Amino acid sequence: MIFTKVPNHSFGRKGLRALAALMLLAFWPLTARSQASLRVDGKPDGMTAELLGSTQQGGFRPDYASSSEWAFGAWAEGRKKVGKAVFEGSFSFDLSYGKAMSGSMFIQPGLFPIDVLEFTPGDKTLRQYHFTGGLGVEIAPQWLLGARFAFLSADYSKRKDIRHTNFGLDLEVEPNVAWQSPDGWFLQLGGVFRRRYEQIKAERIGSETAVNYYAFLDKGLSYGAWQLWDGDGIHLAETGVGVFPVSENAWGLTLELRKEGWTARLKGLRTRGSIGEKGYDWFRFPGWEAKAELAYEQASDRISLQADADAEKLEESVLEKVSSGGVVTPVIYGWNGISKRFRSTVLLSWTHRWQTSPDAPRWTSDLSWEGNWSREISHWVYPYTDAANILRMGLQAGVKARFAAVELRAGLSGAGGWSRETGLEAQAAVSVDPPYRLQEHWNRVLEYARAPRVGATLGVHWYIPAVKGLYLRADLSGVRAFQIVYLPSPWRFAASLGVGYAF
């Protein structure tokens, strides 16, 4: 949050409105970019709030998701210019519920290079609070200061004899400074700090015994340890720790350049993550992230090319518990690399807006192509290695038309993928058992990534004429996949309803 020293005089009505806007928006999460560039992007002031409910049904899903999910929430976003400063922010709350869920225990599977899976179906509840905010202020002719922050807090819980509760947070802060030349050049430089944390607390509640429950610690490519949920190799019930904690810190820089409709952005981060605490550091995963965007926008069109990539390696500690005088102390002798992964995404999009006459409907069309490529290598047990390459591509097209008080939307999409594995290979002839692989899980991961699919969306906004700013929104979507063998169904449907107000 940003605090400003208030002069010792009366605000008046204008000052009170400005202060109220600042206090309100300071608690709202960032909607896209909120920083020094807010002073030059030319967007109007406004606020919007919405209450919504949604559902997803169908078996074409990742194996950690549910075939029947329900969610309810609220969000608000706003923007306000006060003198030489512009404030922007948003807030959202989501409560989602899924039936008969198992698989990954993490809130966002795949975020970290390690996973923990359980196999007892049960209902899960997820609550998420998301705040973002930003400020851009002119401090001198041609010079601007800005800042943005984004904060996500989430808690996850599962109800069954084997239960787990999760707590997660994601915080990112970016202060920046910008210079604008008289002939229209805009240059912005910022620093970034990000902190991510999640912990899993697993426990058994009920009459069943622990021998009936197993968990799997995925160390990459579905190779890992499959044991009783409180086994030493899983780390869910480690003596002295009691939880499975994961943390990651990242530092980096951002650069933005604008000129006559052109915008170029760069972002680079150095990341360092660890799993464990209180001296029990079981894993660490250093890495890096990079993002880039080049866009051109005019009154009727916007074309954007985005690319991002990240890489990290997972290392496991050589740890011994040393007992002395009745006190157990963990001692780390070294680190072994067990897996590494590289992921990249390219997104090309085009938006076109047109209106044949002042009284005619306003039309907007969107066309985008996205490609994802990932490569992961596992070398957990020497001398065995395995590698997998996964390529996915998708095409989306949509159109939106505004007829007086009604806005209609429609879209079509298609996607598919390809994968190639080298297979488990031994680099040397030694009598070592090969690593254990949870093949059923890996089959579902590959099938969801590669399966050809087509989708369609329909939506409507009704801006109620009787109450200016009030609207109702409804959206429907469906996906049909092909060549499905391991997933429960080739179908997935989603629907959402919302009521909102635009100030």
Give an overview in words:
The chain has 503 residues and is mainly beta. The protein has helices spanning 12-25, 439-450, and strands at residues 46-57, 68-82, 85-104, 115-140, 143-159, 162-180, 186-204, 214-218, 224-228, 244-259, 262-277, 280-297, 301-324, 327-354, 362-378, 384-403, 406-421, 425-426, 453-463, 470-481, 491-502. The two termini are 24 Å apart.
Q: Output mean pLDDT.
A: 89
Q: Please count the beta strands (DSSP E, at least 2 residues each).
A: 21
Main sheet, how many strands, which sense, barrel?
18 strands, antiparallel, barrel
- Beta-strand proportion: over 45%
List segments where confidence is low: pLDDT < 50 over at least 5 consecutive residues: 1-34
What best-fitting shape do the alpha-carbon axes yield? globular
Radius of gyration: 25 Å
Order of helices and strands: HEEEEEEEEEEEEEEEEEEHEEE
Please tag this protein with its features.
globular, mainly beta, single chain, 2 helices, disordered N terminus, 503 residues, 18-stranded antiparallel β-barrel
Question: Can you give me a brief rundown of this structure?
Answer:
The protein is mainly beta. Helix content is 5%, strand content 66%.
Please specify the SSE layout and strand pairing.
Elements: H1 12-25, E1 46-57, E2 68-82, E3 85-104, E4 115-140, E5 143-159, E6 162-180, E7 186-204, E8 214-218, E9 224-228, E10 244-259, E11 262-277, E12 280-297, E13 301-324, E14 327-354, E15 362-378, E16 384-403, E17 406-421, E18 425-426, H2 439-450, E19 453-463, E20 470-481, E21 491-502
Antiparallel strand pairs: 1-2, 1-21, 2-3, 3-4, 4-5, 4-8, 5-6, 6-7, 7-10, 8-9, 10-11, 11-12, 12-13, 13-14, 14-15, 15-16, 16-17, 16-18, 17-19, 19-20, 20-21
